[in-house]
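Support case: user asked for a sample of complex input and structure output to validate their parser. Sending the pair below.
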Amino acid sequence: MSLFADAFAWIFSADRLTGSQPLPFTVGQHLYFTFVSVLVAAVIAIPVGWLIGHTGRGREVAVVLSGAARAVPSLGLVVLLVLLVGVVHKTAAAVVAFVLLAIPSILAGAYAGVRAVDRAVVDAARAVGMTPWQVFWTVEAPLGLPLLIGGLRSATLQVVATVTIGAYVGLGGLGFYILQGVPLRRFDQILGGSIVVVAVALVLDGVFALLQRVVVPHGVTAGRAALQDDSASRRRSTAGSAA
Amino acid sequence: MTWVLDNLGLITDLTVEHLRQSALPIVLGFLVSIPVGWAAFRYTAVRGPVLALVGLLYTIPSLGLFGLLAAALGISFLSETNLVVALTIYAVAIMTRSVADALDSVDRTVRDAATAMGYSPWRRFWTVELPLAGPVLLAGLRVTAVSTIALATVGILIGVENLGYLFTNGSQRRIVAEVLAGVVAVVLVAVVIDLLLVWVGRLVMPWLPRHSRRRAAARAARQAVAA
């Protein structure tokens, strides 16, 4: 497999630390775009998802939104926003596209998490005299945490994949090496870039898998059970997302 | 709108190409995931590793997967084969989990009843378990089809022309209408295929009463929310 040997030689070459696009810088850039987009999407989607889950109102919106989102081609959305906003602000435009793509998974995770809480538990919390606010913060939100993190995980992986594609509009990120390698006919660079971006995605996925274990309050089994529940809906939200 | 009317021929050609490129991964993904999903459902020891593996496959960014596949399979990076193989891998990744879940959804007592009546495992699978798993299978297939159609557009970045061509061409020529037309066309194709699958589902599962169909739809909707 000399192709892979060449690719690793490319990755670990001293040249990767210099030039206009040093590898550590590009990895940082890729992660930066990902975190900013997921953060903004989370700030928007988590409260809305929680509200839908808590009140049960607007469920159809969540369903239709996440269904429709899957049909939207991410490359098309990025290019469209960059063209609309103007090339001068292409970074902002691309980040808006990433945010839009991240919102449905997070919204669904927040919503499904709250909905997955056993109604009897909520009734019990109410029966012991908790206010609606207390019911939400001390019962529904913690119990729904595993699914919420699952939603954040899907969203993050979707954005990592889309940032890669975003290199097409000159955004930088790890996709830059892959796309630049095509006209240069540098397969070591294409494969090297591919390996790095796949590694970044897998590491982030691992971090979230860990987070899912660590963040969940001790003794919370309902959320875990929901994760292992038979229904496709729940487990699927822990799976990643390709774009 | 004028741009669309002026380029209707191009859009039609690209749509046909797009459908041709997406069809094989969807069908292959379905066929491959039935035995794999069944193994995951049937053998507890297989389930964990298989579901973890398909989960990992699905986390791989498409552009990265193209690079890995080209090297691993010795195919050209810029080729339709590369796109079709990558899309098939994603389809299998989505569908395997659905197949395992669909078989899980079959009532255990029904399975036991079939066994008690003397059905062999083979016959039980084809005549009892698979048909009863139908609604959940269909939901999974719809998710797979829609995702594949949307994802296929990335093919243009490795030189495979389909509706994704409208994105790169529109970007180079700075024609907003062209890019927008591309996005709308992809969504429309996805919706049409989705409706087609629902219709086929009714055709092959005529025994489903209305309310059960609605239940299946609700299940599909739930799946849609969390996916």
